[in-house]
Amino acid sequence: MSISSILSEIAQGIEKAISDAASEVGQALSDAVGAASAVGSEISQDIENITNTLGCTVQGMKDSGYTYYPALGIVNRAIKNANINGKVEPVSNIFQLFRHGVVIESAEGNYYYVGGASPYWGAGKDFFALQGGACFFISDSSIPTLMRKANIIVVRLKRRKLTSAPWQQPNPPEGCSTPVIGWFETAAENSRDAGGVMPNYLPYFTGLPFYQIEVPGSFVKVSGDKLSATILKENLKGISDQPPVPFIVARTVGTPFQQKNPNAVINGMMAVAVLDSQLQEKLCNLFITQDKRICGTLSTVKGFSDALIGAPVFTAYSCLSGCKEPGIVGVVASATQLAGPVVSLVLVPLPTAYTDQAFEQLASALGVQDVFNESVRALGNAREVIISLQSTYHISQTLASAIVDHLDWNDREQMMTDAKPYVEEAIKIEDGIKEALKEAKEEYLEEYVDECVAYHVNEDYDEWYNDSLDCVYSHSRKFGIAP
């Protein structure tokens, strides 16, 4: 069967699923369902464009590397109970503790996470966004608590470069930029419903054994009166480097939507996801060619999960000049499970210009400017302390930055105090390793000492020394030279 016929079958499946759902839900349900029914009606009229744009999106995303990988948001420590809609709800599974999102670099060189937040975050100082194996984070004890008041947050992050894999950010959709008719054609595509893809990692977890999904369990442990999610975070980091699973989405431009948030009114757009495992598997097999076993996990997805909050949705225009590059049109702010496999989505559009000002404006519109401002302040503290450590102790920027990664960035003076023991230990370790290399007549490895000591910053001196020494000698083994 050809790709076009498979995509046509998928699009027809979307149309049927939404039509069936609309007839089942009736007229007496919520406004969200009513809006979704309207979406179904519009989609029936625009099925050809949905098929074409879905095809362009899949084709553009298939072999494009990390550009379309979503981020996974997680904290190291979480609370056991949260107040949700006035009711205290305990954590019972890992899907309550992580969210999807995206990481974007602004024109000014700052990194931002735009994505979901969990009401169970807090109790620690670290928030991580993991995308394509790369690690972005912020370390401030006030931020995780501030984050849990909203579904979608905007925060500035620091990239952990020493431990980060290659990374590429998502871009806005490319317009139909052909001469003369380009502007008109782009406007026409913008005014039509479109097929899209919501890449995510939910199926990687829904098929896991219960003892891994439950909380407490093998991924999340009890730590005092809090929860430790460090093992889950490390698992998410590994998963973030794997191909995401594509979910089918039909985005409509004809049904704008407003949703009350605890802090603001979200001006979003409507979309519909069809979580039918057979349709999803057809799309998955077109999208993921490296490992077909991934697509077999789709049957374990039984409906929308809160872990999908913040998941990005991509669309590519189908122009007279051909398919354009896919781009991100928004992230999922909320969802309503309708009849059958149909889920009504509200998407928050992202800025088309990636500037610091644009992300600040988005944070303000979402009612999370306090989270945004605190993250900017904390990053400013981290940068100032890195410079101070360099000048005070005459250490490299690499080592100073790695030490700062282990501190709470809430107060600069306290950061300098907390950094001092790390710096003193690091200097002793570097001197000790260099002396060992000198005795072994292997001074040629000294160039790796600073980087290795920075990579393995640890509160335990012996462990820090031994790991750093092994790291240095690993460079000689790479060239076949025995230590």
Question: How would the blueprint of this fold be written?
Answer:
Layout: H1 3-25, H2 31-45, H3 47-61, E1 71-75, E2 77-78, E3 81-84, E4 87-90, E5 99-105, E6 111-116, E7 126-131, E8 134-139, H4 143-147, E9 152-159, H5 182-190, E10 194-200, H6 203-206, H7 210-213, E11 221-223, E12 226-228, H8 230-239, E13 245-260, E14 265-274, H9 277-287, E15 312-315, E16 318-319, E17 322-323, E18 327-337, E19 342-348, H10 356-365, H11 369-393, H12 397-404, H13 412-439, H14 449-455, H15 461-478
Antiparallel strand pairs: 1-5, 1-7, 2-12, 3-4, 5-6, 6-9, 7-8, 8-9, 10-13, 11-12, 13-14, 14-19, 15-18, 16-17, 18-19
Helix pairs in contact: 1-2, 1-3, 1-9, 10-11, 11-12, 11-13, 12-13, 12-14, 13-14, 13-15, 14-15
Report on the architecture of this protein.
This protein has 483 residues and is an alpha+beta fold. It has two domains: 3-69 and 168-366, no CATH class; 372-479, no CATH class. Helix content is 40%, strand content 23%. It contains 15 helices and 19 strands. The chain has helices at 3-25, 31-45, 47-61, 143-147, 182-190, 203-206, 210-213, 230-239, 277-287, 356-365, 369-393, 397-404, 412-439, 449-455, 461-478; strands spanning 71-75, 77-78, 81-84, 87-90, 99-105, 111-116, 126-131, 134-139, 152-159, 194-200, 221-223, 226-228, 245-260, 265-274, 312-315, 318-319, 322-323, 327-337, 342-348. The strands form five sheets. The chain has a six-stranded antiparallel barrel with strand order 1-5-6-9-8-7. A six-stranded antiparallel sheet has the order 10-13-14-19-18-15. Strands 2-12-11 form a three-stranded antiparallel sheet, with no helix packed on it. β3 and β4 (87-90) form a beta hairpin. α13 (412-439) packs across α14 (449-455). The chain is globular. Mean pLDDT is 86; it is low at 25-36 and 479-483.
